[in-house]
User: Fold these one by one.
Assistant:
Number 1:
Amino acid sequence: MLQQDSNLTSSDGVDDIVIRDATEADRAVIQGLLHGSLRRNYDGDHVAQADRIIDAHLGGGKDPVGHFSKTQHVYVAESGGEVVGVMNIAEKRQGTMKISPLIVNPDFRGSKGAGSALLAKSVEVARARGVRQLYGTVAEPSSWIETFYLNRGWTCGSQSNSQYRPGVVEHAIYYNVDDTAATASEPLKFEEYSPSKYEELERFLTSRMDVFVDGIDEEFVRALVAGHERRGTREVEAKYKEIYLGYESGVLSSVIAFGPKKGGAVKLMPLSATSQDALRQTLRFAQSWAEGRTHKLYTHQHVDPAVVTAFQSEMWTLEGLLPEAYAADKVAAQWGWLPGETTHLGRNSDRLKAYTERFLTFVQDRGWDRIEEARSLAMAVGGEAGELLAELQWLSETEVVELLRMDREFKTRVSFEAADILNYLIRLARYCEFDLIEAADKKLAVNIDRFPVDEVHGLKGTRFKAGR
């Protein structure tokens, strides 16, 4: 459970932050930070959680109920004598360390750097303890938190729906503390296959692909090259390939073949590299090749820590496991990538649907659904719209733009009024038994016909109506 500061860089004010061990005197503020932040996306007693981690920390780092925990410590971020953030780190017997949680007071998120300082402390402690990997989880609704971590070298490893609260998707993220394998001496240079490279290609594939694929021999390579020679047809049924070779300092370090499939997706097979970094660079090359050519890349690979890390680092999604698909007693994994994706957020879940389920559960738990009426809910939508208007009533557009940019409280008030409108619309849709998104989708289809692009582009509604 990681709750972080949202700025992507740590700047002015970071020198004012002091990271120190938590003390008994910090208990109340730590309880408040956990309860205030975690209750938005996590079920459970967060005050009790705060007490447990503080007790373990003050008890010499031993957690009496944690069977995997080796040591456990709580650190706080302090600014001007005020505790503004907290982090609990639990060292595991397996040589890893979990951050659970890391929370920063909202007033000290961003450029003041409290979150950055706590995160740096976790890496410092991990290195001192000989820990190989830090890990934690982020709730998908807190998307900016995951962005914070991704921009600091962390990787999204997996997703799990309804793990800590029904309807909330949780993302597991990790950071390899001393990942020297990810540094290459120089970038790979890619070139299209040519007949003069046949023997080099054959040696590379027959010596490397058998790690999880049976039948990789000279006949396989000849068939692969024949597919490359058919690339001029551009016919899917011809099963053509485009083969590229990646070189580092003149040494062949990766091979990738693009095979278009029915439906427009492109399969990368074979795809093999001599190191994790060479594989990551090859994936980036594939992604640049894909832009404007396909809606999806996918490949089948053996299950190996370096391979998994490379694909996760380049934002590919694990789509399934294929036992014995390519060799007896071996498992292959299917990885997929969609052009334009830069994070894992929202890939496997409908965030509005998940939120709707959570919100309606909130309403039902309080018995409000039993006293609802369509008229009252519709009036509530209008009332909340009026409150949104009241925030903007006496402001010019220039003033609104400036306040949204500079005044955090103003932006929060506007966003909360808009959220209230959404909440009442969700309740109204449930009461009236229609799907809100389906209705909006149908109305969009009507409006596409009603407002042709060539007639309305750049026109405000009143000017368009006047011309009709």
Note: The two ends are 55 Å apart (CA to CA).
Number 2:
Amino acid sequence: MGLGDKISNKAQEVTGKAKEALGDATNNEKLQAEGVADQAAAKTKQAGENVKDTARDAFDK
């Protein structure tokens, strides 16, 4: 996984956590759900990138 991808995914995850927390604090269910969705999307992207890295490492040997 490239450094840019790692930063982008982490930023999306942090943004999601902030949205979720703000949604909790303001009792805004829509914002809270958006935050949870952002976090899930970031984690899915990270998992996909990890699979690509593992496959690339396996074929490089």
Note: The longest helix spans residues 29-60.
Number 3:
Amino acid sequence: MLVPYDALLSLPQATLQAMIKEYLLSQLEDGSFSDVDEQQLTQATERCKLALKKGELVVEYSEDDESIAIRQREHISAKAYDQSA
């Protein structure tokens, strides 16, 4: 199930920051980023927030394993789109 962007705005700021940081760290692990300093992390966080706002990135909640994660929209199954409507 996709979490609407407006719902993300009602989350505590620390919760959203933690989700973004986890997403960005997953990008580090797969090699999308390398050698990131604090300034680059701050910039990447802002880009991630903007991508969430634009819908390029989405937050997906999995009821099966009760997890939540940021994903690229094109990597989400059509089933998730149907549930978010």
Note: The CA atoms of residues 17 and 75 lie 22 Å apart.
Number 4:
Amino acid sequence: MVLTMSALALLGLFLVLLLRFKSLGIGAAVVAVLFGFYLARTGAADSVDQIMTALSDAIRDFAN
């Protein structure tokens, strides 16, 4: 039996392990996860894209 796992799942597991052993900070983990979503263009990427657009619009509106 062959076990297959997506690269996104493996990267996610790797990030969780790095966070668990405190080798990676929360900010760097968020950046890495967002990069992974944009790179993989999974089904969740549209939601992440909408959230990031809303955040950038909010920051831009706050600055004005």
Note: Residues 29 and 35 are 10 Å apart (CA to CA).
